[in-house]
């Protein structure tokens, strides 16, 4: 999410406490804090390094021990 999109969301009254920008590719939350993480239609827009870093941050750091992560992504070719 870019700072422009974040400002638009805030302008529309979307709760800004639920939206944030990553700082140094790090989610601003403590370790093991989420029981459920959803990531919809994001992975296919990331390059390979970002996929590896993001998945490690989500799965290894902020997802709780018995937490669940739900991912979906498009496998359709562009065009």
Order of helices and strands: HEHE
Cα-based radius of gyration, to the nearest Å? 14 Å
The residue-averaged pLDDT reads 84
What general form does the structure show? Answer: globular
Strand elements, count: 2
Number of helices: 2
Oligomer: single chain
Low-confidence stretches: none
How far the N terminus sits from the C terminus, by CA atoms, comes to: 24 Å
Spatial order of the strands forming the largest sheet: 1-2
Helix content: 25-40%
Largest sheet: 2 strands, parallel
Work out the strand percent. Answer: 15-25%
List its salient traits.
two-stranded parallel ribbon, 2 strands, alpha+beta, about 20% strand, about 80 residues, globular
Notes on the protein architecture:
The chain has 79 residues and is α+β, with helices and mostly antiparallel strands. The protein has two helices and two strands. It has helices at 3-11, 48-62, and strands at residues 34-40, 63-72. A two-stranded parallel ribbon has the order 1-2. The chain starts with a helix and ends in a 7-residue tail after the last strand.
What does the secondary structure layout of this molecule look like, with pairings?
Elements: H1 3-11, E1 34-40, H2 48-62, E2 63-72
Parallel strand pairs: 1-2
